[in-house]
Sequence to fold (188 residues):
Amino acid sequence: MNGLKVKPVIGVMGSAEEVLDSNVAERLISLADLLGKAIADRECVLVTGATTGIPNLVSHVARRHGALTIGISPAASSKEHTLDYLLPVDGADVIIYTGFGLKGRNVINVRSADIVIIFGGGIGTLNEFTIAYDEGKIIGVLEGTGGVADRVKNLASLSSKRDPSEIIFDSNPEALIEKCLSALAERN
Fold:
């Protein structure tokens, strides 16, 4: 590969806008800030669902710190992305318009990532978690962020899958990224 280093791709899956209105918003915003910076500091590429809320916050921070950010849109065009899905276009360096809807977008999102980070989340994040788990991805769970992230241990215990994904838990964004990157290096 001509000596070029392939950068790890980290997908951040998590809570949309409504979580930011809760009484824990300030703490979650601070964690999103630390996560975005940790991804950029380790020269990783960030993939999100080109959505609002936590993934958007992480993407803005990662971009500000020099990371390449990619948004995977459920829409077929920029117009559909903004008018029908009401999603932002300023949260990523590159937006890929799939036209696959939310569930189809989730598959592309997860498959594009070497590591999937679960940050809070509702039903969409649960969908992304199950795809990542089924596909044997390295999954980092940012503990203490509510929603799906705080229920992953119980969900994973329901599976009888013989070759489960590697699930890594930490409440510190920097430590979580370090642990996930170490697990990726061991796999490679």
